[in-house]
Design brief:
This protein has helices spanning 7-12, 29-45, 57-65, 75-82, 86-96, 98-103, 109-122, 126-129, 131-135, 150-166, 169-179, 183-186, 191-198, 204-227, 243-254; strands at 143-147, 232-236. The radius of gyration is 20 Å and the shape is globular. The chain contains 15 helices and two strands. The two termini are 36 Å apart. The chain is mainly α and 256 residues long. The chain has a two-stranded parallel ribbon.
Length: 256
């Protein structure tokens, strides 16, 4: 798979929960929590400190705060909603829960669909069904929120998108379309855009531009989310503070 840790780095610093899931399988925060707990327990059992690194706020919070009981997807309802367009899903969410419509990422079909499911199955607004989780104090150590100035961040994202496309992502998607792909992997940034390119709907330049735009939007949401978390210490990286110079401060917060 593209964008995985290089072999040398993986040998030097063992990575977990990378490239372990077949592409046709689905994964959600509840499943991730179970897997993460198992891995963390195994690492701690060896006298080591597990370090969680990533940018998916919902999954991170699932581990730091746990997950409130939320109804599992109803197959019939999921099938009905999956047949709707994004516009139709947005309209349905706006009607069912206007507050959730204003709060979530409305351009993410999976998020919109899941929000509708929760609202319809619980019979209450999305915010109310998650209120206990949102107000629960963290049960894990604090963490570090690494951030960069906007110009530098955007330049790095542009470079990463170029590396992604040059590193085999197009061939990877082409292969996945032939063998089959699950709902989770199919929602990854880049998959839909590359699929459109392979189907001849857009050219390679448009494909790259759309991936860049989607990634920039996602990065903005990440920044907004992490800034709002009280158990993450912000640390600016860039020309004045490099990663190597920040290691002591990171280590201090990992071992309070």
């Amino acid at each position: 798979m593209t964008a995985q840790p290089e072999a040398g780095l993986s040998e030097e610093v063992p990575h977990h929960l990378f490239g372990f899931l077949p592409i046709e399988e689905t994964c959600d925060a509840a499943r991730y929590l179970v897997l993460a707990e198992e891995v963390a327990a195994e690492i701690s059992g060896r006298g080591k400190t597990p370090i969680f690194c990533g940018g998916t706020g919902f999954y991170i919070k699932a581990y730091t705060h746990g997950i409130d009981p939320i109804p599992s997807p109803d197959p019939a309802l999921r099938a009905e909603l999956s047949s709707l367009s994004l516009d139709a899903l947005q309209s349905r969410l706006r009607e069912a829960d206007p507050q959730a419509f204003d709060a979530i990422d409305r351009n993410n079909p999976r998020r919109v669909l899941r929000a509708i499911e929760i609202v319809l199955q619980t019979g209450m607004p999305l915010e109310k069904s998650r209120s206990a989780w949102n107000g629960r104090p963290p049960r894990r150590h604090t963490g570090i929120y690494l951030w960069r100035e906007r110009e530098e961040l955007h330049a790095r994202i542009r470079n990463n998108v170029e590396i992604l496309l040059a590193g085999g992502a197009i061939d990877e998607v082409r292969s996945a379309l032939k063998t089959g792909i699950g709902e989770t992997a199919g929602k990854a940034i880049g998959f839909r855009e590359i699929t459109s390119f392979l189907e001849g709907k857009i050219d390679e330049g448009e494909c790259q531009a759309k991936i860049l735009s989607a990634t920039l939007r996602y990065a903005k949401r990440q920044q907004t989310w992490f800034k709002a978390q009280k158990n993450f210490v912000p640390l600016l990286l860039g020309e004045t503070v490099r990663v190597s110079e920040a290691v002591p401060q990171i280590a201090a917060n990992l071992n309070p």
